[in-house]
Specification:
The chain has 2 helices and 5 strands. By secondary structure, it is an alpha+beta fold. Strand 2 and strand 3 form a beta hairpin.
Length: about 100
């Protein structure tokens, strides 16, 4: 949510209005659309603050971009051998002409 700096029309006003806690006539923070509309209509000074890029030290795993998906590997002999591994099959050995006789 975007942060705003809002000043009350009454100097040094301290109280909560629209869920925003004003201290000495100023509130800085996020504002819901309803109260924001009220502040603009009621003569409050409303400034939208620039959005700063997130600080790397405050990022969580949820903020990180997901890793790109790895491409699927074609079956082939290597993929087949690893897929059959551990199923109790005997290893396949190449046949020679002598084995045929």
């Amino acid at each position: 949510m975007t942060d705003f700096r809002i000043s009350t029309p009454v100097k040094d006003y301290t109280d909560v209005v629209g869920g925003c806690a004003f201290a000495r006539g100023v509130y800085v923070g996020p504002v819901e659309p309803g109260p924001l509309s009220y502040f603009r209509q009621a003569g409050y000074t409303v400034e939208q603050l620039p959005t700063a890029p997130p600080d790397a030290s405050t990022l969580t795993d949820d903020d990180a971009e997901p890793a790109p998906a790895k491409p699927a590997r074609a079956g082939g002999a290597r993929g087949k051998a690893s897929a059959d591994k551990g199923k109790g099959d005997e290893p396949i050995t190449p046949q020679t002409q002598e084995d045929d006789q």
